[in-house]
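Thought: the user wants the 3D structure for the chain below. I'll pass the sequence to the structure tool as-is, report back what it returns, then summarize two notable features.
Action: structure_tool
Action Input:
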Amino acid sequence: MISTSYDTDVYTYVSRLRTVDSRKIVLWGMSFGGAVSATCAAVDRRAKAVIMVCPLFTYVKVGPAKADRAFAQLMRDRVSQLRGNEAASIQPFTPEGDNAIGMGGAGGPGGLEAYQLMRAAVNKGAAGFRDRIALQTVNLT
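Observation:
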């Protein structure tokens, strides 16, 4: 199951902003984010709609060593956040096209293309673009 705790947290935060009508919030996700948004909406019924762009519905099998390492990092990050620290973030893809748990074409042409696209955005100075995702994004428990 995909973890939805952060999407629910984000939804709650955004719904409390003065400039947001909490009755009209739409979840929007791309790739893995699309699957997470759909899962969040299935559990948390406050969303009025979900937009999924190229949703990722299958995952590359994660080897036990990679899964164990990722899970340990996730738990350290959750403990750190409970102590009031900022959420940890990671690069979505390495220069080899790999990622923390092997999802989304990791290590293959799709992962390399994603890395190159994100590097191009960083190098071209795309305003507001960050080549980072919250570590908890990879939480598939």
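Final Answer: Structure generated. The chain has a mean pLDDT of 80. The beta strands are 26-30, 49-53, 89-90, 133-134.
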